Amino acid sequence: MSVSLSAVSAFDPDLTDRPAVARQLDFADHGAEVPRHAHRKGQLILALRGAVTCTADNEIWIVPPNCGVWIPGGVPHSARATENARLNYLFVEPGAATLPEECCTLSVSPMIQEIVDRLAREGADYPPDSHAARLARVVLDELVEMPRERFNLPISNDPKIRAIADALAAKPFDRGTLGDWAKRVAMSERSLARLMIRETGLTFGRWRQQLRLVVALRELASGASVQNVAAELGYESVNAFITMFKNALGSTPAQYFSQRRSMPHMFPKEDGAIE
């Protein structure tokens, strides 16, 4: 029986000092779990197919269509990809571009996606005066202009919040109340409510809805049906799930993915709705 290699072992971006290098990984050939690690270079994660969630800076990030998760150099992170996932990674040398100093989700234009895909076919040590070097410069110049989006869930280093996050990520259909969870982590309901707001900035109800949205985006991007995702998240009806999704992102799941594929320059409004 063959054992899939970890994606971490497939490529070490720190072996080159080039401003930007890219690598494509198909998770049919690698384990779905990418263990916690860090490297000198910053990393942009783009999903060509399937979906991936990343954990970094005490937050869970989802990589939706036409977006990328940016992880600065030196930040420990891990990831979990769906079995059908194919990703492009862009690794950026520190100081090569004025990119955010904290993790975030960046909208990514079709041009950036195409250039990263082209760079992924180049060797890591391309000559400084080569066509690949010019492509790297263009993609970095374009990347710093891309707007940020909000596809993340704060999870905190607090062991009780982390335990709840792990449990709900494994069983997102769990409908336990704040009081139920307080008993499970041996706290009073009031104390857990205060801890949740202090550690995540969200009430328990808002935080759990954001977690469900992250899971929903991941599963829908991997090809799961709306019906199956609604059931997995514990919704009593598909309509109830669609209503939650539309309230959060401004469109139904079908509209959301259709629009993002056909209108890649569309960005969320300040309230999170899709323009």
Short précis:
It holds the Pfam family HTH_18. The chain folds into 2 domains: 7-149, Jelly Rolls (Sandwich); 156-262, Homeodomain-like (Arc Repressor Mutant, subunit A), CATH 1.10.10.60.
CATH fourth-tier homologous superfamily of the largest domain: Regulatory protein AraC
Which architecture of the largest domain would the CATH scheme give at its second level?
A: Sandwich
Query: CA-to-CA gap between the ends?
Result: 49 Å
Biggest sheet architecture:
6 strands, antiparallel
Helix content estimate: 25-40%
Computed CA radius of gyration, to the nearest angstrom: 19 Å
What is the number of E strands?
Answer: 11
Biggest sheet: strands side by side, in what order? 1-8-3-6-9-10
Keywords: DNA-binding, Repressor, Transcription, Transcription regulation
GO molecular function: DNA-binding transcription factor activity; sequence-specific DNA binding
Protein name: Transcriptional regulator, AraC family
Domain HTH araC/xylS-type: 158-259
Architecture overview:
Keywords: DNA-binding, Repressor, Transcription, Transcription regulation. GO terms for molecular function: DNA-binding transcription factor activity; sequence-specific DNA binding. It comes from Solidesulfovibrio carbinoliphilus subsp. oakridgensis. This is Transcriptional regulator, AraC family. Residues 158-259 form the HTH araC/xylS-type domain. The chain is α+β, with helices and mostly antiparallel strands and 275 residues long. The protein has two domains: 7-149, Sandwich (Jelly Rolls); 156-262, Homeodomain-like (Arc Repressor Mutant, subunit A, Orthogonal Bundle), CATH 1.10.10. Helices cover 37% and strands 20% of the residues. The protein contains nine helices and eleven strands. It has helices spanning 110-119, 131-143, 159-170, 178-184, 189-200, 204-221, 226-232, 238-249, 253-262, and strands spanning 20-26, 33-37, 42-49, 52-56, 59-62, 67-71, 77-81, 86-92, 104-107, 148-149, 152-154. Strands 1-8-3-6-9-10 form a six-stranded antiparallel beta sheet, with helices on one face. Strands 2-7-4-5-11 form a five-stranded antiparallel beta sheet, covered by helices on one side. Strand 4 and strand 5 form a beta hairpin. Helix 7 packs across helix 8. The longest helix has 18 residues, at 204-221. The radius of gyration is 19 Å and the shape is globular. The model is unreliable at 263-275 (pLDDT under 50).
